Amino acid sequence: MTTYAIGDLQGCHREFMALLERLDFAPGRDRLWLAGDLVNRGPGSLECLREVMALGDSVQVVLGNHDLHLLAVARGGAATKRSDTLAPILEAPDREALLDWLTQQPLMVREPHDGGDTVMCHAGLLPEWSAAKAQALAGEVEDRLAADAGGFLAQMYGNRPNRWQDDLDGIERARFIVNAFTRMRFVDPDGHLDFSAKEGLDSAPDGFAPWFSYAREDDPHILFGHWAALEGVTPGSRVRAEALDTGCVWGGSLTALDLGTGKRIRQPSLARG
């Protein structure tokens, strides 16, 4: 059995299917870990959702910011954006089944291995959270989604609070957890998150650095997507972090990481094909 971790699909269905063919992926024999943002921006979001859902127990997904945006539009009353390509999902006859399935997906996956934990989350792992603490906090939000998805999603958006405190509660606590797991890029030494800079490492605001440049007390193997501008590399990393988003939807490629061998397999964008 081989486990492959794949970066942001973002509706790149043709590339996803071509990559699975390159991998000779066989459901039931192999496993997929998908680092979130299955949908939006690309032309095949509906097809991606259907394909991944059909893989059943052979796939493990975490929620990304675009996945949560879809749920916020469909269940929380949020407005669509001009760049969204979500209409085919929202108009699909099986939309409710797809949305129900998506709502049940976690913010974080943590699996023990001989070399320590392997963790997957969309944007990364906040330096001050241990893997165990992060998993517990992710569970709080997952419970809220299960209990009252519409009510939570309607209040999810916002950049405040931008620093973790253990005594945060209510929607502010949940909002920070969501933002850390799905939107984080740059962090300052005091733990404040910046949400304005979205490009490469040279776009860091004064006093901020990428989250993976801070040392941790534990040493998980962290798989993340979200940051296409990194082009799959993490210069200056002080943790075991694997950047998986290589910008397929922007004309780059879709990347799979073989978790057993460390080999990367890339499928170039077919947007011009």
Automatic annotation (TrEMBL):
Name of protein: bis(5'-nucleosyl)-tetraphosphatase (symmetrical)
InterPro entries given in the database record: ApaH (IPR004617), Calcineurin-like_PHP (IPR004843), Metallo-depent_PP-like (IPR029052)
Reaction catalysis annotation: P(1),P(4)-bis(5'-adenosyl) tetraphosphate + H2O = 2 ADP + 2 H(+)
CDD domains the record matches: MPP_ApaH
Organism encoding this protein: Onishia taeanensis
GO molecular function: bis(5'-nucleosyl)-tetraphosphatase (symmetrical) activity
Top-rank EC class of the record's enzyme: hydrolase
Record key words, sorted: Hydrolase
Annotated EC: 3.6.1.41
Domain Calcineurin-like phosphoesterase positions: 1-125
Family recorded in the similarity comment: Belongs to the Ap4A hydrolase family.
High-level lineage: Bacteria, Pseudomonadati, Pseudomonadota, Gammaproteobacteria, Oceanospirillales
Its job: Hydrolyzes diadenosine 5',5'''-P1,P4-tetraphosphate to yield ADP.
NCBIfam families hit by this protein: apaH, PRK00166.1
Pfam families: Metallophos
